[in-house]
Protein 1
Amino acid sequence: MAVIPFRKQPDPWSFEPVRSSATLSSRIVDEVREALFDKRLKAGDFLGTEKDLAERAGASRIVARDALRTLQALGVVEIKVGSGGGARIAGGNPALFAEALAVQLTLAGISVREMMDAQRAIEITAAELAAENATPEDLLKLRDLLAEHEATIDDSAAYTRSCMRFHLAVAEASHNRVLVAQLLSLQHVSWPAQNRTLTDPVARHILEVHRQLVDVIESRDAAAARRLMDDHVRMIRARRVSEDQADAPHCC
Ligand SMILES: [Zn+2]
């Protein structure tokens, strides 16, 4: 089967000589992915139709279709059918794949401690950057969420959801989309739907900490935002670890 050697081609992406026993379909997927990471391809670039891809790869249309389906499932391409259709490099949807990562973390049996340590690293940096980068709209959103906290403080489930949105809003105010996607992913795994250790004093303490966080973000005090978030996530970590231990099966 003819294979187009990549480096002899002027195209932004093509096919290297056979390197392994991988199927041609998975090699097409690899080459497109590598071209993306090397910035030879970017969001919006047109890859062509299934027929074009088959011709370029020297493969059958079945192989090209299989590769395109995999690339679509990976979120790398968007496929439009019909006349004028074909595959195009996708615009990217980190939120969607944050959920996919959450599924994988759950399947891998990630411990509460591992998750909370990662969450702490992400949220400390997010709070620091929020103090540097928050816009007036971000601050308005954070203040609205504080009002929502007050309105829902007697409803444990609603209050928990409001708190989750608050932490995500702090990450969004950092204007770092990597941090947002990572936090979103961890929230899928670690944020409880029902917060069993949420007593009234704990809820009021959280509200007070969130208020202080918004104040220091608004006053652009990055060091204080970092410190406050660090203490806060340590507290959350301690509660989650104790909840996890309470769930553990007892022996003897
Ligand atoms: Zn909080």
Note: The two ends are 64 Å apart (CA to CA).
Protein 2
Amino acid sequence: MLDTSPRTVVLVDGSIESLTCAAIAMDRIEANNQSAKVLALSFFERSESAENHSLQQAIERQFEFLGCTPSSTELQASVGRLGLVKALDLAGPQGTILWGHRCTMNPDAIADTLALVDHLAGVARYSQPSYLVHFDLPLLDLTAGQVLDLASALGAPLGACWSCQHAGHAPCGECPSCSSWLEASKASGRPLPWVETPTVG
Ligand SMILES: [Zn+2]
């Protein structure tokens, strides 16, 4: 029988943003008591090192959080526009693509991103007019602190993330990504599971 339940495709790249989108997808299904099918797609905006074991592990844990058992082909990352086209294909005619892409408060970057997804959804509709698939970018203009607040409100397991730009057993704590999350964590008072809280005394 043809499966016609609405689909949500979560773009999973192991980041805090993609985990937050995964938590949003799960929350929506619970809230609406939906039979929506959640699919995960391993996706990167740019080519990333496949050698980064910690990142791969974070991706696998986010797949598990979504209740998706990753096959080896699904874990082969889809990159850039081709990845987004693959997501459109997976989402099907009435689907939603949840993408944790974040431009913070950069209006040009926000406009470029919206133009890109609008273009891709338009191309999908052009080839198949019944396609109402849409991109959902809930974190697009959020700050790192706001993402931490949202992730925490949704009960997202932050341990299932790799937020560092480098490979390793633990985040380096010094790259721009690590610095930004550390700063947001301090400002919001929300601890990051991979950062040891200093003991007093
Ligand atoms: Zn780092």
Note: The helical segments are 16-32, 53-65, 72-75, 80-91, 107-127, 144-153, 176-188.
